Amino acid sequence: MERRLKIAAAGDILIMKRLPAEYQDLGEIRDYLAKADVRMANMETTITDGTCYASAYSGGTWLTADEVCLAEIGKYGFNMLGWANNHTMDYSYDGLKQTEERLERYGFAHAGAGRNLYEASRPAIVNAKGGRVAIFDICSTFEDAARAGEQTPRQMGRPGLNPLRFRCVYRVTKEHAAMLKEIADATSINALRESHRKQGFVSPLPEHMTEFAGALFEEVENPEEEGRYSIADPRDVKRMTDMIRESFYTCDAAIVMVHSHEVRKDSDMEPDYFLEEFAHACIDAGACAVIGGGTHQLKGIEFYKDCPIFYCLGNFIFENEYVRLLPADYMEKYNLPFYTSAAIGIAKRSEKAAKSLYTVKEVYRSVLPYFEIEDGKCVHLEMLPIELGMEKSKYEKNVPYVADEETAEEITAYLNEASRRYGTNWKYENGRIVQS
Predict the structure, then answer these.
(1) Is the pTM of this model over 0.85?
(2) How far apart are CA 8 and CA 417, in angstroms?
(3) How far apart, in whole angstroms, are the C-alpha atoms of residue 11 and residue 298?
(4) How many CA within 13 A on the CB side of residue 28?
């Protein structure tokens, strides 16, 4: 008889400090997650002793936390952490090394980054009651310098994260393409790029394509076809689907985690085109689920070939305000004196924002899916609605609490709106969100 694989997942864990001492909902959330044999989440920070050099770039905020935070994550019962995200390389190669050492020390299975592309692409292995599970982790939102490099017979690979590259194509009519060419000729905005193309450093433009400031524009006849589209890099798709298929030589199931901040247009509800393409390719290769994070709020849920795709689970812990260390680069970016403290630096950035994340209620709401897989298909799914204490005191907020009935109904309504394009419908009953 086929045994059921029991899985629980959470969104992004951006943890900077210990959990509140009087944290009454910890036990209920831990017990809910404990129903599963595989308990996974994305850890969105480095874990270092504070001595690593900050990279010249970051995932938006340079993030690092003390290793005691891993013990706090462990209190929820997670046994697998992905760490391929836009903050993986905030503290360069030393930060990556220290993070990996500490994940190992605290006993977490982990995936998504490593000493070279092979190591970064490898799955974490979790031995569950329902079988041996390979869990892959990949990220589409990163500076190119954060991308792990392939090892060759002649040269070592480059440490970094497991990359999911993509390219954007903008479709325009011939008339609009002619306007772009006219502006380019007048401003010489493409001059250096064209020079590099003639020298062979840049690939020739495909037919019916126009370039403007590095962006590609495809000419179309119908004005209704105009717009932005994205395509997953076939090299990364093939690398990951090949590894998914390979995992079945030693494992019973495969799951893919993906961290992506990209959206289709201007709504955080809609995953980008390439992300849907990639998720479908993973399930076509044999994965039983795809679990996304990145945009700090929920996206829709799709069932593809009876396998769940959670395009984004939002936040589980969101303590961005409590960053202790920030390099001078951050202060320069926001026109602050280099000696400004991290707390003031974060606050000043929020003051300048037209819509700070700390004022968006959806950022403080999420779900914790628990689902069961049998013979590669999902046979049961329920979700615990949670909220992160947006209205609580600074000491109590930013960690997950079980949502009350009114909030749970609002989360359900939001999830229905986000999932409409996938034809999935949800209802809240008996403390859980389930399919209706």
Answers:
(1) yes
(2) 23
(3) 9
(4) 12
